[in-house]
Write a structure and sequence with these properties.
Layout lengths: L10 H18 L3 H22 L8 H22 L4 H11 L33 H23 L1
Helix pairs in contact: 1-2, 1-3, 2-3, 3-4
Length: 155
């Protein structure tokens, strides 16, 4: 069934490359919000393609799972490169988790399949879970700061 889907082997390239080019155009003109929007478009397109592949179905062939894994890791790698101007530390951590070599993290490496040989690290966490207690503590500190500012303004 999945091999009959209207998705060519080059579909991942067509889903991400035009958006990467759009990203570069927006960055060159300092149109940062549109550049970030094109970064999100890469993820949305990859998600759509992944949903079409549905590698989680019991009836999926191993080749479908392989294509899905390739698309997922390539989309994350490309997003990591595009994310560097916004979140350099997290972008670097993402590419470290994906096993992307330092020399393969530039604009010239935005194309699908341009990431070179790599091996993913298992068990890494890009954004650790926030505990409810910690969140409440941060919120309380924020409320205290707001009150202190109001008192200073009123004085």
């Amino acid at each position: 069934l999945h091999d009959a889907l209207p998705i060519s082997p080059s579909a991942p390239a067509s889903l991400t490359t035009p958006r990467a080019e759009t990203f570069e155009t927006h960055m060159a003109t300092f149109d940062l919000h549109r550049a970030f929007s094109s970064l999100l478009d890469v993820l949305f397109s990859a998600n759509k393609h992944l949903q079409l592949l549905s590698p989680w179905l019991r009836s999926s062939a191993p080749s479908v799972a392989h294509r899905a894994l390739f698309l997922s890791t390539e989309s994350l790698r490309i997003t990591g490169i595009m994310m560097q101007p916004y979140m350099p530390t997290k972008a670097g951590e993402l590419m470290d988790l994906l096993g992307v070599q330092e020399g393969r993290r530039g604009w010239r490496d935005l194309g699908v399949g341009e990431g070179g040989e790599r091996g993913m690290r298992v068990g890494g966490q890009l954004f650790p879970a926030v505990k409810v207690e910690e969140l409440k503590e941060v919120q309380e500190k924020g409320e205290k700061m707001k009150k202190q500012r109001r008192v200073k303004v009123e004085d």
